[in-house]
Amino acid sequence: MTTSSVPEATGGPEVASRKGDVAAAVRAVGLVKRFGALAAVDGMTFDLAPGRIYGLLGPNGSGKTTLIRLLTGMALATEGHAEVLGVRMPSRQTLARIGYMTQSDGIYPALTVGENARFFAAAYGADTGPSVTAALELVELADRAKTITGTLSGGQRRRLSLACALVHRPAVLFLDEPTVGVDPLLRVQFWGHFRALADGGATIVMSSHVMDEADRCDELLFVRAGRVIARGTGAELRAQAGMDDLEAAFLAFAGDGEVAA
Amino acid sequence: MNPRRLRALISRVVAEIRRDRPSLALLFIAPVVITGLLTFILREGDTPDVSVALANEASGPAAIVGTALTTTLEDEGITVSDVPDEGTARARVEAETDSLAIVLPPDLASGGQITMITLGLDPGGEAAQLGVVREAVSTAVAGVTGARVPVVVRETIYGTGSDDPMVAFAPAIVAFFIYFFVYLLTGVSFLRERTGGTLERLMATPVTRGEIVSGYTLGFGLFAMIQVAVLLAWALGTIHVPAIGPLPEFAIGLGIPVVGSPLLAYLVVVVLALGAVSLGIFLSTFARTELQVIQFIPIVLVPQFLLSGVLFPVNSLPEILQPLVVIMPLGYAVDALRLVFIAGADLASAALRWDIAVLAVVAVGFAFVASRTIRREVV
């Protein structure tokens, strides 16, 4: 399974620089994904450093989910390519070091909480003992291990979904709208988990269309119409746009983007 | 193929089915109830209630045929009412006073036709009545003319010599139900995997497509194997339960006589069921909702039912349909099961080996095609 043959131009120098290059945990090189006439991802190039939390911010339909699917190798790029931990995606081996929390919960309602976590641990090739316990403790579901998942509340299912994404202690964690439908208290807990994982060296890439939680990310990428229209910390982006809040800053950049396009 | 991942997939599929009570009922109880009902209907079916309006318009010596016919029919337990003419007879059938009218024409002696009149709303039931009456008419005519009607005895090369209608029917029914239920359950549960986001998530792990299809095939295959064992035991076995207290003695099981090895029959059905798992996975690609999985039944399963000799003998099908018959997996299973059940074939039989080989190729082929459908859903 390979990408299209178009953008091999940058391949040479990158291979050479890759060995010493631990700077980028995730790299997008001229990524394009077209569905017919629509370019869901329309030329993205960026490097993301390890141990940091990145927020992909943009309205619904701006290409965030498609970008994450390209980065995880779930979708094939029309042009360009994605690299995770220095390996060109899609790579099945590299998937063992990636965690992916989909927008839907993506867990089995008929299984117990423990069975779900153990199943994904086995699928990732992790141990089904201590790792599972640790992941369930992290999301505070260890005491519900024998509960049938279908009977959990929405917030508990979201927590289990997160546990299943990090049960194998991934080096890179992709989270697609992880806090959608999560109550404010739980959201605070989630952010505590994310920060702890990043402090432990994991790179976290999350998508969101909620601006108020974006400030918790180390760095933000504003995504609009399949392009990254701005990048920086929340403070930097506000300052650049001359706005007080991120929403206004986004709109200011989006306006520029339209003029540029 | 990583054994640890495969084991995890199998035990997950098994855990899911085990907790799904309605599906378990569908797998184990439904086929038993339906085959039981069918057997009861076929074996215990009564001769339909026939009452005859007889218009004897024949004159002269031929009129005795009417009397003889009345006697013969009444000997069979059929009510006969004499009516003066054809018009009255028709009116009685139309009013449903009688189920059938027989008109003996005035020119009966010189070769006139005997007419039988029915309502025409229930062709199957009326055909059965006509059979009874036709036999009585020939007996009556023979009695009057003094001719002897020879007794026809039927013999078969294969078979247990019993006239149990289930002997020929059971192989087809067993094969069809296994195919149907395994397809339905796999199709629906794999669709849930696709729409519930778990397949997407699973594909984001190092699990391979081959492992997923194998996991499903072996997980569902396990239940199919138990299902087949239960259904075969029910269809072929008989356990006599003696009278206990007020309960009269009764028997559990249909006790359909089988000449060949039940184990061989088991093998045939299991190979068929494995093919049904892959078919379910494959067709779930084209469905968006569980209802659509059901909607595939008329397109995929009903033609197999019609073209595989379950109801209609394959060689009686129109010539133009014969090429379709060749590609129906169910047909090979029905054929193989009949060879085993009725002809007592074993693996020395080339025909049986061919049937099993085709079923195995279909199962493996569909598993391959099914695995190809998995990564395709790039949204």
Explain this structure to me?
The complex is a heterodimer of chains A (261) and B (379). With 261 residues, chain A is α/β, with parallel strands linked by helices. Chain A has helices spanning 11-18, 64-71, 92-95, 113-124, 130-138, 154-166, 184-199, 234-241, 246-260; strands spanning 26-35, 38-48, 53-57, 79-84, 87-88, 98-101, 172-176, 203-208, 219-224, 227-232. Helices cover 36% and strands 23% of the residues of chain A. In chain A, helix 4 packs parallel to helix 6 (154-166), helix 5 (130-138) crosses helix 6 and helix 8 packs across helix 9. The model of chain A is unreliable at 1-21 and 257-261 (pLDDT under 50). Chain B is built from 13 helices and 6 strands. In chain B, 61% of the residues lie in helices and 7% in strands. In chain B, helix 3 (64-75) crosses helix 5, helix 9 runs parallel beside helix 13 and helix 12 packs antiparallel against helix 13 (350-372). Chain B folds into 2 domains: 3-43 and 160-372, no CATH class; 51-145, abc type-2 transporter like domain (abc type-2 transporter like fold, 3-Layer(aba) Sandwich), CATH 3.40.1710. The chains are: A alpha/beta (261), B alpha/beta (379). At the A-B interface, helix 3 and helix 4 of A face helix 1 and helix 7 of B.
Report a brief summary of the structure.
The complex is a heterodimer of chains A (261) and B (379). Chain A is α/β, with parallel strands linked by helices and 261 residues long.
Helix percent of chain B reads 55-70%
Q: What's the assembly state of these chains?
A: heterodimer
How would you classify the helix and strand content of chain A by structural class? Answer: alpha/beta
User: What's the helix-strand series of chain A?
Assistant: HEEEHEEHEHHHEHEEEHH
The Rg value of chain B, from CA coordinates, equals 28 Å
How far the N terminus sits from the C terminus of chain A, by CA atoms, comes to 33 Å
Largest interface: A-B, 33 and 26 residues
Largest pleated sheet of chain A:
6 strands, mixed
What would you say the CATH architecture of the domain at 1-97 and 194-261 in chain A is?
3-Layer(aba) Sandwich
From the N-terminal CA to the C-terminal CA of chain B, the straight-line distance is: 27 Å
- Strand line-up of the largest beta sheet of chain A: 6-7-8-3-9-10
Principal-axes shape call of chain A:
globular
What is the topology, as strand order, of the major beta sheet of chain B? Answer: 2-1-3-4
Rg calc of chain A: 19 Å
- Reported by name, the CATH topology of the domain at 1-97 and 194-261 in chain A is Rossmann fold
Strand content of chain A: 15-25%
Low-confidence stretches of chain A: 1-21, 257-261
